Amino acid sequence: MLARRAKSTSLLLILLAGALGILSSTQTWLAVGRADGGEALDVAGNAALPVLAPLSLTALAVGAALALVGPVLRRVFAAIAVLVGGLLLVLTARILLQHPLDAVAPALTKATGLAGDPALTALVDGITVTAWPWVALVAWVLLLFGGAWALLTAGRWRSGGRRYRTAPAPHDGPVDAVESWDELSRGTDPTR
């Protein structure tokens, strides 16, 4: 019973984290105030953190794979979930705490045509963080916990797909074609 709960808890946390990551990648993470009097610029999660969507998809794929693979690969995929969660946690925390210029630079360059740190620094009046990076940060904590829980309990999970395995058929009849013909000559059916 504990193994079933451990498996479902791990899978739920990993899949939920991946789904929240995908959702947050399309939402506004940062609002950039402009010193030139231009309209504030909204920066989506996938623009602020380009690896957000691919690594969120990785989390979803890991969650799906964990449900299907055997004990050895479970540990491998659980370790991948922990690594992805840790990487995304660090990258998201950097955006939340530092408001780095490189998170908004591509969007600013696209909107204004200006490039380079000195020009963009002069253009930025302030960077405001929305709630979506916080949601993503919670998702990465869930991903870390789900991956770690899977890593600790993977050996106790039941293997999937047992009901689809077939036992080898007993082999009483002939083994090769010559023996099959001999069985037919004697009047017995070699397929039985």
Report on this model:
It contains eight helices and three strands; from the N terminus they run H-E-E-H-H-H-H-H-E-H-H. The mean pLDDT is 88. Strand 1 (28-34) and strand 2 (41-44) form a beta hairpin. The protein is mainly α. The protein has a three-stranded antiparallel beta sheet with strand order 2-1-3. It has one domain (2-159): Butyryl-CoA Dehydrogenase, subunit A, domain 3, CATH 1.20.140.
Itemize the secondary structure elements and their pairings.
Blueprint: H1 2-25, E1 28-34, E2 41-44, H2 45-48, H3 52-66, H4 71-98, H5 105-112, H6 117-123, E3 124-129, H7 132-153, H8 177-185
Helix pairs in contact: 1-3, 1-7, 3-4, 4-7
Percent helix range: 55-70%
Tell me the number of structural domains: 1
CATH architecture assignment: Up-down Bundle
Q: Kindly report the spatial arrangement of strands forming the biggest sheet.
A: 2-1-3
User: How far apart are the first and last residues' alpha carbons, in Å?
Assistant: 42 Å
Task: Give the uncertain stretches in residue-range form.
Answer: none
The top level CATH class name: Mainly Alpha
Nearest-angstrom radius of gyration? 27 Å
The tally of helices reads 8
The main pleated sheet reads as: 3 strands, antiparallel
Order of helices and strands: HEEHHHHHEHH
Which structural class do the helices and strands define? Answer: mainly alpha
Strand content: 5-15%
| Rough outline | elongated
CATH T-level topology:
Butyryl-CoA Dehydrogenase, subunit A, domain 3
What is the tally of beta strands? Answer: 3
Average pLDDT, rounded to a whole number, is: 88
